[in-house]
């Protein structure tokens, strides 16, 4: 079964084609570009490139897997809107995965903190034991995270390593497409119904609607 994997929860714009079989999950083709300001410009071309490299027509896809974040409002919305739109057009189910869970799963054994950059001098974070989430996801200033872990992963952990006080795996900064696909593989094999893609924003966007005008003083 061929699956399109998308994630735009971090500065990394990720698209991949994965093959899900009874024996496991393998990445057939993938693209990742780290550019926090170009999610809207890069994601669609990346999708076209991985499909072409894999020799897969859109109609051959079995499902779409999307990273739900947590992540900044604008970038996260790009991936989720793309995933939902393609799934609707192709008539295939779409499944959401917490993007931090992919980092935690990729980190493997031990107690791990996964943290991505939430901007405003904050991080999105969760903790994992042997790849299984124990706490989170949450958003906080690095100094307020205050968890016990053996090491950390994610670009947020790298950015604030001095504050977190944990060794950081510099090779594992962004949610890997393989592990996003693995987290949804059971649903793909079971042909589970499509899911609503509920983004993990964890806080309100910077832009808000203006409030009502205050009455003029008399």
TrEMBL record:
GO BP annotation list: tRNA threonylcarbamoyladenosine modification
Residues in Gcp-like domain copies: 36-172
Top-rank taxon, per record: Bacteria
Enzyme class (EC, first level): transferase
GO molecular function: metal ion binding; tRNA N(6)-L-threonylcarbamoyladenine synthase activity
Keyword Acyltransferase found: yes
InterPro entries membership: ATPase_NBD, Gcp-like_dom, KAE1/TsaD, T6A_TsaB
Alphabetical keyword list: Acyltransferase, Metal-binding, Transferase, tRNA processing
EC number of this enzyme: 2.3.1.234
Cellular component GO terms held in the UniProt record: cytosol
Xref: PANTHER family: TRNA N6-ADENOSINE THREONYLCARBAMOYLTRANSFERASE (PTHR11735), TRNA THREONYLCARBAMOYLADENOSINE BIOSYNTHESIS PROTEIN TSAB (PTHR11735:SF11)
Protein name: N(6)-L-threonylcarbamoyladenine synthase
Protein source organism: Spirilliplanes yamanashiensis
């Amino acid at each position: 079964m061929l699956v399109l994997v998308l994630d735009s929860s971090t500065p990394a714009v990720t698209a991949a084609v994965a093959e899900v079989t009874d024996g496991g999950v393998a990445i057939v083709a993938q693209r990742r570009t780290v550019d926090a300001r170009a999610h809207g410009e890069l994601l669609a071309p990346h999708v076209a490139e991985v499909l072409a490299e894999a020799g897969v027509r859109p109609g051959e896809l079995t499902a779409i897997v999307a990273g739900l974040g947590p992540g900044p409002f604008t970038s996260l919305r790009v991936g989720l809107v793309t995933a939902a739109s393609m799934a609707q057009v192709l008539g295939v189910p779409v499944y959401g995965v917490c993007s931090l869970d992919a980092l935690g799963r990729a980190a493997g054994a031990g107690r791990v903190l996964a943290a991505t950059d939430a901007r405003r001098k904050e991080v999105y974070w969760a903790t994992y034991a042997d790849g299984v989430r124990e706490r989170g996801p949450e958003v906080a200033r690095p100094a307020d995270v205050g968890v016990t872990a053996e090491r950390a992963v994610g670009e947020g952990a790298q950015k604030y390593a001095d504050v977190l006080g944990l060794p950081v795996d510099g090779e594992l900064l962004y949610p890997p497409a393989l592990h996003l696909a693995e987290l949804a593989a059971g649903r793909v094999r079971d042909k589970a119904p499509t899911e609503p893609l509920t983004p993990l924003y964890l806080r309100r966007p910077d832009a808000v609607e203006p409030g009502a005008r205050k009455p003029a003083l008399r």
